[in-house]
Design goal:
Layout (H helix, E strand, L loop, with lengths): L5 E4 L5 H12 L3 E6 L3 H11 L2 E4 L5 H15 L4 E4 L14 H29 L2 E6 L2 H5 L5 H21 L4 E8 L5 H4 L3 H8 L10 H12 L10 E4 L8
Parallel strand pairs: 1-2, 1-4, 2-3, 4-5, 5-6, 6-7
Helix pairs in contact: 1-9, 3-4, 4-6
The protein binds acetoacetyl-coenzyme A.
């Protein structure tokens, strides 16, 4: 019998990432969920979902190499990488500190290189791989208070297209998903008056649910999606429709 596919989901113990870990587990994957520091949430996710959890800073190349080696030693080669980990440090540019800029660029963008670089050679050797990068509506359209986040999330899309081209002949697909405002802790941190204004601009009339994003990830991870690569799937309730 073929071995179960192995998936690594960064930021996989909370928010959208937790829903992705759960979906992939249900679909029969062995799942490793990365997390930065919240041990309580990580242990709860491990118990609840039956996933391996692995701690490290995705903004640090050495941490990513170590975490991937640990996962591959425990579960086998990684077939599917979901680059989901992300943070916000919202501030208008005229108030943004260099630390707020750098933290978001490292965690949300450098991470995509740090993780992908450490799995790509194995995927190429084996002739199969799926990389799914979580971008954002705000990387597509820009957002007040998010010059750092929007720059990183737009960078994720450029990275996705380039790596898709480089690896298309090797059975590897690389795609991005650009979620809109999803009902997570990250979005509930937006001041209520601002969030109300944002939700009033969503044609579907509500926030998205984490599992709605997770279902799309499961499809892009599957064998059925082999002809889709380099794409950005916009999932935002109609809030923004790039051409
Ligand atoms: N949409 C519409 N208006 C916005 C806005 C937004 N996203 N963000 C700020 N504004 C408006 C405010 O309502 C306010 O308007 P008024 O002057 O008419 O009241 C004006 O801009 C200035 O805002 P603040 O008074 O809040 O200014 P501040 O300097 O105290 O704070 C801020 C600025 C930190 C950017 C704060 O407004 C904020 O947190 N905004 C939300 C930014 C945001 O959308 N973040 C998304 C986080 S979720 C995420 O990132 C996930 C994802 O991928 C979608």
């Amino acid at each position: 019998m073929a071995r179960a596919r192995v998936a690594f989901v960064t930021g996989g113990t909370r928010g959208i990432g937790k829903a992705i870990s759960a979906r992939l587990r249900t679909a029969g994957y062995q799942v490793a969920a990365g997390y930065a520091g919240n041990d309580v949430a990580a242990n709860a996710a491990a118990d609840e979902l039956g996933v391996m959890v692995v701690k490290g800073n995705v903004g640090n190349f050495g941490d990513c190499a170590r975490a991937i080696a640990e996962v591959e030693a425990a579960l086998g080669p990684i077939d599917t990488l979901v680059n989901n980990a992300g943070i916000t440090r919202d501030a208008m540019l005229h108030k943004m500190t260099p630390e707020q800029w750098n933290e978001v660029i490292y965690v949300n963008l450098a991470s995509i290189f740090n993780m992908s670089r450490n799995v790509i050679e194995g995927m190429r050797d084996r002739g199969f791989g799926r990389i799914i990068n979580i971008s954002s509506i705000n990387g597509q359209k820009g957002q007040m208070g998010q010059a750092n986040y929007a720059a990183a999330k737009a960078g994720v899309i450029g990275f996705t297209k380039s790596i898709a081209m480089e690896n298309a002949k090797k059975g590897i697909t690389v795609n991005a998903i650009a979620p809109g405002y999803i009902d997570t802790e990250m979005v509930s941190a937006v001041p209520k008056d601002v969030l109300d204004k944002i939700v009033s601009g969503i044609p579907v009339g509500r926030l998205g649910m984490a599992d709605e994003i997770a279902r799309a990830v499961a499809f892009l991870a599957s064998e059925d999606s082999g002809f889709i690569t380099g794409s950005t799937l916009t999932m935002n309730g109609g809030q923004y429709m790039p051409s």
